[in-house]
Amino acid sequence: MFTIEAFILAAVFGLIYGFLLQKADFCFVASVRDFVSVKDSRIGKGVLVLMATAMIGWGFALTTGLASLEQVWAVPIGLTNLFGGILFGIGMTIAGSCASGALYRSGMGYVQFWIVIAAMITGNLLFAFIYDPWGREGFVEPLTFTDKGYSLYEIGLPFMVLPLIFVGILILIVVKKFGVDGFLQGVKNSVTDWNGNPFKQQHWDVRFVAVLMGITATIQFITLSSISVTGPETRMGGVLVASIFGEQAVYNNVYLNNMFSSYPAIGLGPEETLVIFMVVGAFISSVLSKSFKIRFPKAKRLPAAIGGGLIMGVASRIAPGCNIANVVAGVGGLSIASIIVIFGMMIGVFIITKYYFKMPIMLFYREKDAA
Asked: Structure pTM?
C-alpha cells in the first residue's frame, strides 16, 4: 500500500473527487438542510444516486472477485453509531458544511472552511486524548453491542441481489411519482446539462456527478482502499503531534497508536494524500470555471466554524466515520453501523435546521456570496 504507485493513485482519486464535488456543490448537510428549510431535494437526489451507484459498484466488485468481503468497511454496531451520527449532523449544520464539503470549499478559497478543517482535526485529537481510559470505558465500550462490524453481504445471498433490490425500489418510487417518461427525461437531463466547455462550466448536474463519484469510489475500493476523510485527518493530526511533542506522544496514546498500526511509521500515507488532493482538485475546478476567490469569513461566523468543526471531529471518532465514508463505503458495503450513523446524521441536521436556525438554501453557493 505504501508504494509510489499507491501514492500516485491516491492523488489521482483525490483530484477526481475534489473536481466532482466542486462541480456539483455536493454536500451531505445541504441535502437534508435544504429539504427541511425550503423543500429543495436537488442535492438529496444526488445523495441517493451516489448510494445506489456505490451499492451496485460494491456488489459488482464482490461478485466478480475483484474485491472480497474482508475489504468491506464495517465497524462495530452500537448506540455509539447513533450518538456519533447525531453529533456529527449537529456539528456540520452549525459549521455550514460536511467533511467533504469543507474540503472542496477550501479549494475554492473559503478561509472559513480551512478553519473548520483545523477545528475538525483538533476535535479528532481531543477525542484521542480522552479515549483512554475515560472515553473507552465510560461510553464507547458500554454503548457498543458487537465486537466487529456486520455487512448485509454476509447474509449469504448473491452479492448483487440486495443492491439490485434497493435500486429497483428507488426506480419504482421515481416512476410512480413522475411516470416512465419523467424518469427517462430526468436521466437524459442529467447527462446533457452542458453549455460549452464542461470543464469551464460552473455547475454539473448533481445526479451525473453522483454516478461518476460512485464509479470512482468503486475503482478505489478495488485498487486501493475505501474512501474516508476524517480517519486520514486524524492521522494528519497525529503527525502534527509527533512533530511537536515527539513520536512517543503518539505511540503512548492508545487511540492514535492504533490509527497508525498498519503504517510503517508515523507519517502521511496514500489516504492522507487523497484528502490533500481533494482540495487541489476543487481548486483546479474552481479556477477553470473562474469561481475561485479568497473569501474571508465574517467575525460572527468564526464561533460556528470552530465549534461546529470541533463537534464534527469528536463525533467522527465516536460514530465512527464522516458523511462520505458512511454514505459511500458504508452503504456500498451494506454496513449496518453506517446505516445507523447516516440516520443519526439526518436527525442532527434536522434538529438544528428546524429548531435552532433556519439556514437559507445554498448559503455558501459561490455566485451568491462572491461579493
From this structure: 0.93
